[in-house]
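Below is how a single chain appears once it has passed through the pipeline. First comes the sequence as given, then the structure the pipeline wrote out for it. We keep one example in the README because the format questions we get most often are answered faster by looking than by reading.
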Amino acid sequence: MYRQGDLLIVQVKAIPSTATKTDDPVLVRGEATGHSHRVQGQIQVFRDADKIYLRGAGQLVHEEHAPISLEEDVYQVVRQREYNPQANRVVQD
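Resulting structure:
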């Protein structure tokens, strides 16, 4: 398990067959700063609705956080949620 800012990277057994591969290395773009969480190296990014999956090895980078080395594996990217009495919402950088 890895954490970088509002992202949690967890190991999973497989990527769903409904997920599609993308060439965009940006996982999440910051709303306020324009900074982004992105991957570098031999990592493939897959998207399935609002879920993001990774396969491979490389680094997770962001302008405001130290880079994190990801070992060769399959991961799901989980965004931190914030509680609000009216509704839960995804945290924005």
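The first strand starts at residue 2 and ends at 4.

See the next section for the split statistics.
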